[in-house]
């Protein structure tokens, strides 16, 4: 973090000490290491470090796992060591396991250890994934986006950063309460690429949103991804100078793709400007420039209630562009339809028209399962001579 313009701590430790690595490494399993060495010096020059060679390394961790490197020779040929000196020498050696065979009790104990280890690993994975597959309610579409701010290019000044946020339509769209729909990248210096200066951010972000179709009438089908009806990604590009002053370099917006899969989007930007030399001098020396009070003014603001939005007299200048890479996933019950029906549907939102029928079928199946379960419980509670086929019927 920063306090004023002074860094509180170093972000990168270029020369970490062994204690620093030991305290900050994620996996810190204690190891015991043994080396099998060979002194291959010529006669009369034994004991010199330059003639020592490592033949084999054995490591034992706290779990009792032994690592041998290089591995036991077995059916492979011997290992080779070539020595350059007054005369070239070639040494060959093998690594053999001459330990006595394990007793049946030891092998059984080893199998129990492996079984316990694999069992704990399976429980750990299950705790991450969960046991139940979370389904959407009928008529709903869940949208997952794993995105990346890739780069920005074509701007006037250096040291760029991007502020972005996602705006959901006010009707039928929502997001979880914990979901963050905005972000800001790190400040990135540009590098020359042809005639342009490019800043590579590679900044990842993710968010989730849900669309719920509440109206069942055919005339009220949702129009997404028609323009102005889907989630919109807004971005603002700014530059930072040596004195920590920022300038607005451009604004842009794009409608999120309606189809799942990987998408690369290039958002062209613009910025408001003033005429005259004084405005450019102010922008260069003190960093002041015109800014939008509401970033949604890049398109049609959500607060606008009229029929026509006039921007007459609003002066702007085209600037650079920002590249986004989006990986979109969609989840809906409508995807479970047969392939023949899916070919006749234009999009998933068209298939949501019949979500009321899906809901009724779902309710019927649930009622059937409950009735069957009650019948099985009643059958189990009856005496065996009544339900057994070999029972005797008394008239």
TrEMBL record:
Organism domain of life: Eukaryota
- Offer one example of a GO biological process linked to this entry: cilium assembly
GO CC aspect terms:
MKS complex
The entry's localization annotation reads:
Cytoplasm, Cytoskeleton, Cilium basal body
InterPro entries to which the protein is assigned, alphabetical: C2_B9-type_dom (IPR010796)
Q: What is its main location?
A: cytoplasm
State the UniProt keywords alphabetically. Cell projection, Cilium biogenesis/degradation, Cytoplasm, Cytoskeleton
Supply the name of the protein. Answer: Meckel syndrome, type 1
């Amino acid at each position: 973090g920063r306090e004023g313009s002074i860094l509180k701590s170093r972000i990168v430790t270029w020369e970490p000490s062994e204690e620093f690595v030991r305290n900050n490494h994620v996996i810190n399993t204690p190891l015991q290491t043994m080396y099998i060495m060979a002194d291959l010096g010529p006669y009369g020059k034994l004991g010199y470090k330059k003639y020592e060679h490592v033949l084999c390394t054995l490591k034992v961790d706290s779990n009792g796992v032994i690592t041998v490197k290089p591995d036991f020779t077995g059916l492979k040929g011997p290992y080779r060591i070539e020595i350059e000196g007054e005369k070239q020498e070639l040494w060959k050696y093998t690594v053999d396991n001459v330990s006595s065979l394990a007793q049946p009790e030891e092998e059984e104990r080893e199998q129990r250890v492996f079984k316990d280890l694999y069992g704990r690993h399976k429980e750990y994975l299950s705790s991450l994934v969960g046991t139940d597959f979370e389904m959407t309610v009928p008529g709903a579409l869940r949208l997952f986006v794993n995105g990346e701010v890739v780069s920005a290019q074509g701007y006037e000044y250096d040291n760029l950063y991007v502020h972005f946020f996602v705006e959901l339509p006010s009707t039928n769209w929502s997001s979880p309460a914990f979901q963050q729909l905005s972000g800001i990248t790190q400040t990135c210096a540009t590098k020359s690429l042809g005639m342009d200066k490019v800043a590579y951010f590679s900044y990842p972000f993710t968010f989730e949103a849900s669309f719920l179709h509440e109206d069942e009438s055919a005339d009220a089908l949702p129009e997404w991804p028609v323009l102005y009806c889907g989630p919109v990604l807004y971005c603002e590009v700014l530059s930072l100078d040596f004195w920590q002053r920022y300038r607005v370099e451009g604004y842009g917006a794009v409608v999120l793709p309606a189809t799942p899969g990987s998408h690369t989007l290039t958002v062209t930007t613009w910025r408001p400007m003033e005429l005259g030399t004084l405005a450019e001098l102010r922008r260069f020396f003190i960093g002041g420039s015109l800014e939008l009070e509401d970033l949604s003014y890049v398109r049609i603001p959500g607060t606008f209630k009229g029929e026509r939005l006039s921007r007459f007299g609003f002066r702007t200048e085209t600037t650079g562009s920002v590249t986004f890479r989006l990986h979109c996933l969609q989840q809906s019950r409508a995807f479970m339809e047969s392939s023949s029906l899916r070919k006749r549907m234009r999009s998933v939102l068209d298939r949501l028209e019949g979500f009321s029928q899906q809901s009724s079928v779902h309710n019927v199946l649930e009622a059937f399962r409950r009735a069957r379960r009650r019948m099985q419980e009643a059958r189990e509670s009856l005496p065996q001579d009544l339900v057994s086929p070999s029972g005797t019927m008394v008239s």
